Amino acid sequence: ARIVVLISGSGSNLQALLDACVDPGYGARVVAVGADRDGIAGLDRATAAGVPVFVDPLRSYPSRDEWDRALTAHVAEHQPDLVVSAGFLKLVGPQFLAAFGDRYLNTHNTLLPAFPGIHGPRDALAYGVKLTGATLFFVDAGVDTGPIVAQVAVPVLDDDDEETLTERIKEAERRQLVEQIGRLVREGWTITGRKVTIP
Ligand code: GRF
């Protein structure tokens, strides 16, 4: 299966996928990595793995609509079976969802529907939950609202700060991402309403 990964940052989730794809039995390979900004470590990880990259900064386009069109076209060039947002910090638009809405996954660093948005671990800590985690889901038009594929729970420890909690979540998140994407590409999936079925 062909995977395009979208990133905005360090790319540790991307790296976990790149490492998994080295095994032919995994059933997938990362055919391109896209970003919304230059100069991020994740792009270097892609290049080091010999994977082509493209960068589409929102501010390079006259409107969000034109950015959405360009991003959709650049992803489509690589004919992905699956598109994975791994720390991609932009909400895609209607054209992207029309093209890839049945195959666009995102990983979020809380147990949704609790604490959506970009400060998940910080918000979970501030609320005082004792259990949080990571959620893998298919993206829909909302913010962190799409049909859930899998979740993994992670404890909040008494002496956690935002950084220690974020790191503990990311370890579990990477494992879940690799396992579940492997399962999806090997077995296929259907999305019916909010329900994701993997045969
Ligand atoms: C992940 O924890 C994701 O849930 C959050 O950003 C992080 C991405 O990290 N939105 P990385 O770039 O894969 O290291």
UniProtKB/TrEMBL annotation:
Q: Which PANTHER family match?
A: PHOSPHORIBOSYLGLYCINAMIDE FORMYLTRANSFERASE
Annotated positions for site Raises pKa of active site His: D144
- Quote the gene name from the UniProt entry: purN
EC? 2.1.2.2
Q: What enzyme category does the UniProt record give?
A: transferase
The active site of this protein is located at: H108 (proton donor)
Q: Which family does it belong to?
A: Belongs to the GART family.
Q: Which organism is it from?
A: Micromonospora sonneratiae
Q: Which UniProt keywords apply?
A: Purine biosynthesis, Transferase
What is the role of this chain?
Answer: Catalyzes the transfer of a formyl group from 10-formyltetrahydrofolate to 5-phospho-ribosyl-glycinamide (GAR), producing 5-phospho-ribosyl-N-formylglycinamide (FGAR) and tetrahydrofolate.
**Sites where the protein binds (6R)-10-formyltetrahydrofolate:** R64, L89, K90, L91, V92, N106
Q: Which GO terms describe its molecular function?
A: phosphoribosylglycinamide formyltransferase activity
* Involved pathway(s): Purine metabolism; IMP biosynthesis via de novo pathway; N(2)-formyl-N(1)-(5-phospho-D-ribosyl)glycinamide from N(1)-(5-phospho-D-ribosyl)glycinamide (10-formyl THF route): step 1/1
Chain ranges of the Formyl transferase N-terminal domain: 2-180
What name has this protein been given in UniProt? Phosphoribosylglycinamide formyltransferase
